[in-house]
Design a protein that fits this description.
The structure is a single chain. The protein has 6 helices and 9 strands. Helix 5 runs antiparallel to helix 6. The chain is of the alpha/beta class.
Length: 202
């Protein structure tokens, strides 16, 4: 059973093991969230190669023997330094073996081809700036999660980002002039319109 949480990835070190198309997609997501990404893989896609200025690339295979303790001398890596790890090699057994070795040091591990053994999933996200709506099927059907995201994308347009900034400004000003928290809440309830009327949408 999974529970949804929002992780703050800004400037947090994360590791992606693997250099294929799936790894490239995960790296793109992590970079969008401003994470500090390290990639370990002997081969990488052209897309990952083009991101060399934004990520750290260690061009080698990760072996089970490299994770005999929390510090790997060969790679000069302390596994505990990572907030999370994405296991995305093209070998299902290797992903599982490496993850089993890494779990004592890093609690958050996503195994791209084995959601049952993963401790977190990548949701399908509707990103509207401060408004982020995450959809997950707990790894059971990424395609359905994508279709739900597309449905929600039509409902929550880009106008919600500007609207949230407006609401934030109102809330900040009310905090200055209204000391009573209950009255502030009532005033904010009155000013918070949802859903936005069609005329507001662009």
């Amino acid at each position: 059973m999974s529970s949804p949480f929002i992780l703050q990835l800004y400037r947090k070190p994360v590791l992606v093991v693997g250099g294929g198309i799936i790894a490239e997609r995960k790296v793109a997501y992590l970079l969008k969230e401003k994470a500090l990404v390290t990639v370990i893989s002997p081969l990488i896609t052209e897309g990952l190669e083009s991101l060399r200025s934004q990520i750290k690339i260690i061009k080698t295979s990760l072996a089970v023997e490299d994770i005999s303790e929390e510090y790997c001398r060969r790679l000069n890596i302390n596994w505990r330094s990572f907030l999370l790890i994405v296991m995305a090699t093209n070998s299902h057994p290797l992903n599982e073996q490496l993850s089993n070795r890494l779990f004592p040091y890093v609690s958050l591990i996503n195994i791209v081809d084995n959601p049952q053994l993963s401790s977190f999933y990548f949701p399908a996200v509707v990103d509207r700036g401060a408004l982020k709506i995450s959809v997950t099927t707990s790894g059971k059907s990424p395609i359905l999660a994508r279709k739900i995201r597309e449905y929600l994308s039509d409902t929550f347009g880009l106008e919600y980002n500007a609207y949230l900034e407006e609401l934030h400004h109102i809330r900040t000003e009310l905090q200055k002039i209204e000391p009573d928290p209950q009255k502030r809440k009532e005033m904010l309830e009155e000013r918070t319109e949802f859903p936005l009327p069609p005329a507001t949408k662009k």
